[in-house]
Every structure is written in structure tokens, then in C-alpha cells.
Amino acid sequence: MSLLTGACNALMLGLLNMAAAHAGDSDRDSSLFAVYVVALALHAYAQRHSMLDAMGAVEHTIERVRLRLTDKVRRASLHLVEQAGGLPGFSALTQDTQVISQAGSQVVTTLQALVTLTFSVLYLAWLSPLACLAVVVVVVGYIIVSKVRDPAIASAMKQAHEQEVTVQRAILDVVQGVKELQLSRRERTGLRTYLTDVAAQSHAHKLQANLDTVFDHLFGGLVFMLLLLAVVFLLPIVVPSSNETTHQVVATMLYILGPIGAITQGLAGMAAVEAGISHLYALEARLDAALEPHHRRPTEPLHSFDEIRLDAVRMRYLDAKGAPLFTSGPHDLRLRAGETVFIVGGNGAGKSTLLKLLTGLYPAEEGCVLLDGKPVEPRTLEAYRSLYSTVFTDFHLFDRLYGLPETVDDAVVNAWIERMGLAGKTRCEGGRFTNTDLSTGQRKRLAFIAAVLEDRPICLFDELAADQDPVFRRRFYEELLPELQAQGRTLLIVSHDDAYFDCADRLLRLDAGHIVADERRHPGEPA
């Protein structure tokens, strides 16, 4: 279709030149007019379909890339996702795919312009071989100059992209740290200075990339206008020709300016697209390096267990140079079905790390996790993780209830919402919470509802009672946890509420990454 569009463009140019050369000949004018109308209709039809086909193909490709990369994010090591620093670390999935999406129509326009230029140059060769040769030399020379300058433009765009990610992180700091900033003038001033500096650097890199692109565009236009000057004033001296031919040559060259401008703009856009594609490749390479073992055969979720054991499990947090920052373990721990275990310790004691090791979210560098006496291996890891419903301290609340049993409908969810004291603040409609813009404590209650309704054997709640009022906190420990335990659930609770420690069967105390005590709260129970 792009070929047909370009051919129709060139045909209409020739028809206009012929009509201008035979103005006044009514019979010929009528024939040329009819052919022109047909060419125009074909041009409109072909252009519409080529645009739609190209944009459809681009959007389909982007959809597949996004799904592939988001699937890899889901399967990637939790370390990578945490170290990426949130959405700015995955900007290629949003910003760069948007750039590529917007380039869909531009690609088609560039291809059509290239075809139009080709046919127009052939037509120009028929009118004046020397003028055609001059145009070809200028166009080829311009392409060579552009290609020589491409690495510099790509480098500027890459630096601008990297700086933009830094700016986004700084803006995220402003939004997420607004409380701290409002309480500290020095922090506000320091962050504003830093944000101003990185924004200025981002602006400078973007400006440089745009200046390079504008220079290429202006350079091409200037050279072509000089070529026009030579055709009008010098070509008739070198190759004598009629005024009619000179007029047609000039008209054709002016017409060619349009496709050349479109190609120039398209090449500039392609530089941004190439940069976006390189960012996507770089992101995918990072994800591939951090992918957990994947098995094509899906594993069925587990619905029960007898015992989970950590056998000398240990892991370390490392800095950029590979030096250890914090060591968790080695841990030796037995967890029996139906137990309520409280995990306590000061901030930084390693409670959340222990939970991530226990759930298989962090791989053990040493030791192993055993389920009913069998080591949890890569092929059984997904099934093992299906034992857990969790609400971590840094939980994410999905506005939709994904993957709940078919027996759970909106009425069941709304009954829980009312029980959690959230009636009037949100509802569940069509499997979706109507409002999640709530306080942290209220959002934790919604996350608790989602976790309980998953109906998994183990419930893990990391400081869920924090940010709750005293009435709900008492209900959580004295009503909700015993109810879940009576259903046969195993409960892992990270808590600082020592007034409710007697609600636990066992109390694990952590300090500096080690389990320093394993206390049974009810004497006489089997060890």
C-alpha cells in the first residue's frame, strides 16, 4: 500500500505538469483531470489502509513486548525489582513503548515519502538527467552526513533518557517524602537544589539532541535550496533547454522538497525509536539475567502441608562492589501446620528478610527449605509459594481481586468489608474495589480481606496491626486470628504489640539477622 501511495503521488505530479504545459486544450485537460481524480482516490485509499495496517502492526508488537517483559518482571528475582527502585527503573515499559507507538504512523509516512521520492526522481530524470543527477548526489550526500552524525544524536538521546530517569526518581522523592520535606527546611532546600541540577542536566541533553536534529533538517533544506538556485541560473547555461522544461524541473524539485522533509523528520524520529528499542533490549537483558528457573509444565497449587523447615538457610545483602551489608541466618526453624507464630524484634532485626526466605521470594545462598522433608526445588517453587497468603509491610493493594476462588462473589467480599469497618468507604463491584484511596490502616484491612479470601493454608501478616486503632487491633488479635486458626490456617505474624504476645503458640525473637529465641507461649505443647 505504501508503494501504491508513493506511485500515485508521483503520478499526480506528472499529471499536474502535463496539464500546466497544455493549458487551454480542453480535450486533454478533461482526460488529465479524470486520470488525476482516479489517482487521487487511489492515493487516499492506499494511504488510509497503509496507515491502519502499520499502526495495527506496531501496536500488536508493542502489546506482545509489554506482555513478555511484564511476565519477565513477574518471574524476575525480587532483588532486581527492589533494586530497580520502582517504576522509574522500568521506564522502558512505559515511556519508550509510548515513543515507539507514536512512531507507527511516522514510519508509514517515511516509507511513502521514500517511494514518492523514488518515482519523482525517475520523472525528473526523464525531464533533465543532469538535474536528476544533482538531486541524487545531494540526497545521498545528506544521508551519508546524517548517518555519520547518528551516533552523536543517539548518545545524546541515551544520556537524556538516563537523566530523565534520575529526574523521575527525584520527583518520586518529593511526592513520597512530602511529610518529611514539610518538616525540614534543609531537606526541602537540598532536594530542590538536587532536582534543579538534574532537571537542568536533562534539559541540556534533550536540547543537544534536538539541536543536532534541527541542524540536520536545516542543513538539508539549505543545500536543496542552493541546488534549486543552481538549476534555475546555471543549468540552462550548461544544458540549453526550453522555459517549459525548466519550469517543470523546478516544479518537480519543489515538489520533491515535501518527501525529503518527511524523510528527514522520519529519520529524526527513527533515532528516538532506536533509542527506545535499545532501552527495551537493555531492560530485557537485565531481566533475563535475573529470571528464576521457569518450567513449562504448570504446577498445581498446594492446599495443605505438615511441616516446613529451614535447614541452615542464609543469605546476604551486598553493595555494588559485592561487599556484604547485612547477613540473615543461618536459620534453623520448624514450622508446623496449624501453629500461630509471632515474629518479633527491633527494626532492622531481619524479620522481613526471614519471611521472604521462608516464602521462597528470596533464594537461599546456603542451606535449603524443606517441605514435608523434601527440599523445595526450582520445579516445585511455584507450588510451594502457593501455600502463602501475605500482607507485607510494603504491600501492594490491587484494586481488583485477582485469582480468588469461584465461590467468592461481591456479596462475600462486601460482608468482609462491613466487618472490617469499611462500609461506606468502599465496596466490591464486579470483583473490583470501588475506592482504594484510603488511609494506610484501611488499605491494610482491604489487603487482609484479599489474603483471607484466597483460602490458602498459611497467612503471613507483617505488622498488619500497625496503623490500626486500638479497637480494631484488639479484634485482630483476639477475634480474627483465633478464627483463622480454628479454620486450620497456619499464622505467621510480625508484631510489636507485646500486650498480645500470649495469643501466639510460639514467639520467635530476631536480632541482627539471627533467631535468638524460640519461645513456646503455652507450656505442655509438643516441641
TrEMBL record:
It is found in: Cell membrane. GO terms for biological process: peptide transport. It is a multi-pass membrane protein. Keywords: ATP-binding, Cell membrane, Membrane, Nucleotide-binding, Signal, Transmembrane, Transmembrane helix, Transport. Residues 1-23 form the signal peptide. This is Putative ATP-binding cassette transporter. GO terms for cellular component: plasma membrane. Its main location: membrane. The chain crosses the membrane at residues 121-145, 218-239, 251-273. It comes from the Bacteria. Residues 1-233 form the ABC transmembrane type-1 domain.
